[in-house]
Amino acid sequence: MSQVSYQNRRFEIQRATLDDVTGIGEVHLQAWIETYPNEEYGVDEDWIKSEFNFLVLDGQNEQGRDNGIPFRTKVINNLNEDTLYEVVKDENGKVQGFMHVDRTDDIVNLNAIYLTNSLKGTGVAHKLMEHADVFTGNLPMKLQVVAYNDRAIKFYEKYGFKKAGMEADRFHGKMPVLNMKREAL
């Protein structure tokens, strides 16, 4: 566990547990609503809610795929030395952000860093990247980011990530996705 203090607020970063499953889903959806609306691509809050409400749902969808709660439950139940799944909690113990990283023999996938707007600019994202860097060891790392999320792209570039090309398909048919990669440290 580590702590970040910012303007009389304290945030704790700790390994995700089953008690965090619902909070992670709520933060995931909230972060999407706060970050991704874009008129040019037809992405607004209503569309995000219609496409990503599964993040806060239990059970399975019509195609038999796990919704957010069972998916995260499985991930947390199967945590091992090759998976880093951390949550950021505020001084009241409420989840305000999370990070999910997987490592294989030759590369690390930074699957997610999501923070609510209340955490942006606090140093929490930098602390999460420090944790990811320790976890990564001497392996390259890759990630995907929404191509119009300039703040996230600049953040990752500070950590040595380079743009590695656009995805051919758009995420959920609307959102252009940029691949980024960082060589081994």
Radius of gyration: 16 Å
The number of distinct helices, counting runs of at least 4 residues, comes to 5
What series of H and E elements makes up the topology? EEHHHEEEHEHEE
- Report the sheet-strand fraction: 25-35%
Specify the structural class.
alpha+beta
Low-confidence segments: none
Percent range for helical residues? 25-40%
Q: What features would you describe in this structure?
A:
The protein has 185 residues and is α+β, with helices and mostly antiparallel strands. Strands 1-2-3-4-5-6-8-7 form an 8-stranded mixed beta sheet. The mean pLDDT is 92. The longest helix has 15 residues, at 21-35. The chain contains 5 helices and 8 strands. The chain has helices at 21-35, 45-52, 68-77, 124-136, 150-158; strands spanning 2-6, 9-15, 83-89, 95-103, 108-115, 141-146, 162-166, 177-182.
